[in-house]
Structure formats: structure tokens, C-alpha cells
Amino acid sequence: MYTVKQLSDLAGVSVRTLHYYDSIGVLAPSQVGTNSYRYYDEAALLRLQQILFYREIGLELTQIKEILDSPTFDLRRALQSHRAVLETKIGRLQNLVSTVDETLSYLEGKTKMSKKRLFERFSEEKEQDYTRLARLEHGPKYVDESVNRWKGYSKEQQDAIFADAGQIYADMVDALEAGTSAQSAEVQTILERWHENLRNFYEPTLEILRGLGELYNTHPGFMANFQNLHPDLPSYLQEGITAYVDDLEHAEIVRLLAEDEQKRTSGQA
After folding, report:
1. Beta strands in 173-225 (DSSP E)
2. Single pTM value for the model
């Protein structure tokens, strides 16, 4: 049996997280002592492992609880599935290592490499991981919508979508290096393309667009990738996206006020 502190150290999660898992019923202690201490047995350890695996691929805790509590859940089959996912990730990470090596070679002046090339090997999974960070805050329907849309594309369409995204970020770097304001009409036009590209995955709300701008400049994964293109790109993107969303929000308010005025005048006629 393991105490909550021992399990925390073993699994690399905080005691607070384990208490939270208990409170929502996703991981209850195997036994609670007379001193109110929580104790976890091997079955609980295996369940926590599954929770962490499913969290790694982006599922919400409510979804994980439903899967693990299902009478048809098969631990052996789940582990085989996780292994296949991890093998796929290893392959994608190896591709990313190659991209990093090529980028270092480019920065050292040993090879030539276009900005678009810097994004070529950022996989479908990585893009979905990033956008999921914003979408999970607004409900699972965005995740479901994204998955369904993506499955409907051919391999050629998927490649074209990611190539377009890479070109968008390359154009942002060009604007940044040219000293163009992130709030300029030129950059805002690029961000219109960015917005349209996101629609290939899901229909983002203004709140989600603004949240992505913040993630680009705060999330370590985003920042590292964008800083490979230019050290100032994360903050440049956030500034530009904030202005872009502000304009969309203003236009929406104007439209709603016009509708209200039209209804008011129609009622008076």
C-alpha cells in the first residue's frame, strides 16, 4: 500500500491533484485509515497510470472516468493501444529532432533553409495538441468537431492545410523582420488567413482566438517553436491577434446594435 505522498512521488503528480481525483471520483483511495490517511494499492496505481495516459492524449477527466468505469474496459487492450500511440509519437519526435538538427545547421550557416521548411515536420498531432489547450476550456464539442472535420480530409488536403499554416507563420516573420506593426493592415490580413486555416479544424469563437494569442506567448511549447523562427514572434503574434479579435468584436457589437435599432424602428412603424 502507498500513502498519498508516496504515490505522488512515484507518479510525479502533486498530492493536491490526487486529492482532486478523489473528490471527482476518478481515482479513489483503496483504503482510508482511521487517521483519515489515504492508501493506494496496486490496482489504484494501474488506474492512475491509465488516467495519465489518457490525459497525455488530451481527454478530459470526465471522459476518462467514463472509460475506466465502463464494464467493457480492458486494461491489456488499453495498454496495447497506448503502446501504439507512443510508437507513433516516437516517430514524430524523431522527425522533430531532424528538424531541430537542420535548423541548428541553418543557424550556423552550414545549410540554407526556408522559413516554411522550419514548420514542415510539425505534425497533425502537435497542432491538435496545441489547439486542444484552448478548446478544452470551452467544452468537448470543439474536440469532437475537430476530430470529425480532420478525418474527412484526404492526405493531400491535410498536407495542404499544414503547408498553408507554415506559410502563414513564415509571412508573419517576414512582416516582423520588416518592422511592420502587428496591428497594421498587412499583418491583420495575414491573421485573416490564420483564422481561416483554424477553421479547417474547428470553428473558433472570439474567446478561443484571443486565448490562442495568449497561449502563443505564454505556453512553453508554443514559445519554443515560434522562437525558432524569431525570438520576438510569440509576443508579436499575441499583439496582432489581440488587435484582430478586438476588431472582430467591435464589428460584432456594431452589427448587434444595428439589428436592435432595426427591430426598434420596425416596432414603431
Report:
1. none
2. 0.52
